[in-house]
């Protein structure tokens, strides 16, 4: 495994380092936002759902725009640089906010940056390796991303232990953001993929394979029950965990996700995307049920966060590798734009539904709804989506024997 990882192209490694530093900046503040809203700004779950849902929805629309424009211009580097820069300078502004609309504005700008960079970056990553190593490449990228999500909460916990306020921790997130900007400037524009059809530059579903369209519908159902992870942090606080323990639980989640992303996503190169992704979605349903049933913030909650990290490790890289397998290279940006659009746009109703069920019924009702959506999506993936994929497609082709 390590030999295969070391053999990945320079672009994959550089994008991995960028994600590591960016998530270190992001996750310094991510687990603290719900605590800041609840304990400092006195805002509840509905406000949290509104902020995260709207911000992610707008981000998702921009992901489609940026993906299509990257295909049209045959250029991705500028989108990646601009997106990371905007997000990096927006996050510290949360610490200057004195009301929840200020937090909303900062998160909104942060998610705009993510929207501009995500699809072009994923297209750059997918075009950097051959199909039989896509699971490994996307898994490695997610591993580095999640490693940054370990460093960030640990840094936040250290700063809190040293006596800094929540606002001061938000302001310190500018430091890793500056490193991210320097690394993005070192990226090189990849060779443009040759367009095989005129439809490669359209905004619509025209020209996209039927199996990919079905995959997007199924992904939408899964996402409808996949509310913002901030609700997991709010659940930990609701069960009695302190701010320091919440950040450490998030670090445990991120550590497990980081360690598992590369081997579990690479497993899809050998066992097939559908087997690994279906198993991950099914395990996701079980994890949500467990989180909804837990009675207190004891050792079981730590195990639940670790298990959720393992589930995340298996699904994140595999989902994207499946996108790259299903479409031609000239439509990579557009396909990842649609993937990110669906995955992010439905976070608005997902987060609003989750917050409403939590506040109006119970936390368990919210988590049970998410589990039901994940279970139904798992069945559709194994039947309806898989039936539309040609047997000779990359995700079904016999894997090449890797050199020892």
Structural description of this entry:
With 404 residues, the chain is mainly α. It has one domain (7-190, 208-387): MFS general substrate transporter like domains (Growth Hormone, Chain: A), CATH 1.20.1250.20. 75% of the residues lie in helices and 0% in strands. The chain contains 17 helices and no strands. It has helices at residues 2-6, 10-29, 33-40, 45-73, 77-90, 100-127, 134-161, 166-172, 174-184, 210-224, 230-238, 243-271, 273-293, 299-326, 332-345, 347-360, 363-387. Helix 4 (45-73) runs parallel beside helix 6 (100-127) and helix 16 (347-360) runs antiparallel to helix 17 (363-387). The relative contact order is 0.17. It holds the Pfam family MFS_1. GO terms for molecular function: transmembrane transporter activity. Residues 11-389 form the Major facilitator superfamily (MFS) profile domain.
């Amino acid at each position: 495994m390590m030999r295969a990882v070391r053999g990945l192209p320079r672009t994959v490694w550089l994008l991995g380092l960028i994600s590591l530093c960016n998530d270190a900046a992001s996750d310094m503040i991510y687990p603290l936002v719900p605590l800041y809203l609840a304990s400092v700004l006195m805002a509840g779950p509905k406000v949290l759902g509104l902020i995260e849902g709207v911000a992610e929805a707008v981000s998702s629309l921009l992901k489609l725009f940026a993906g299509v424009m990257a295909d049209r211009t045959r250029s991705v580097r500028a989108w990646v640089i601009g997106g990371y820069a905007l997000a990096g300078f927006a996050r510290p502004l949360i610490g200057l906010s004195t009301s929840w609309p200020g937090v909303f504005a900062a998160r909104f700008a942060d998610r705009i940056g993510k929207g501009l960079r995500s699809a072009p970056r994923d297209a750059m990553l997918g075009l950097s390796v051959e199909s039989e190593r896509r699971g490994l490449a996307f898994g490695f990228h997610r591993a580095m991303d999640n490693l940054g999500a370990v460093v960030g909460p640990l840094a936040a916990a250290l700063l809190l232990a040293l006596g800094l306020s929540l606002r001061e921790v938000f302001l310190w997130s500018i430091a890793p953001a500056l490193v991210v900007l320097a690394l993005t400037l070192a990226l090189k524009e990849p060779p443009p993929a040759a367009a095989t059809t005129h439809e490669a530059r359209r905004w619509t579903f025209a020209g996209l394979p039927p199996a990919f369209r079905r995959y997007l519908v199924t992904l939408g159902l899964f996402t409808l029950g996949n509310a913002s992870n901030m609700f997991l942090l709010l659940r930990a606080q609701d069960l009695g965990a302190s701010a320091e323990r919440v950040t450490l639980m998030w670090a445990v989640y991120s550590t497990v996700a980081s360690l598992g992303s590369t081997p579990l996503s690479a497993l899809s190169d050998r066992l097939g995307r559908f087997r690994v992704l279906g198993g991950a979605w099914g395990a996701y349903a079980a994890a949500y049920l467990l989180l909804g049933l837990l009675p207190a913030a004891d050792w079981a909650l730590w195990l639940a966060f670790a298990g959720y990290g393992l589930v995340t490790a298996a699904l994140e890289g595999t989902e994207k590798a499946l996108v790259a397998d299903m479409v031609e290279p000239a439509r990579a940006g557009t396909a990842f734009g649609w993937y990110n659009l669906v995955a992010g746009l439905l976070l608005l109703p997902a987060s609003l539904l989750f917050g409403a069920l939590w506040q109006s019924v119970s936390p368990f009702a919210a988590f049970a709804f998410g589990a039901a959506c994940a279970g139904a999506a798992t069945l559709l993936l194994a039947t309806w989506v898989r039936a539309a994929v040609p047997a000779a497609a990359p995700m079904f082709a016999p894997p090449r024997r890797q050199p020892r």
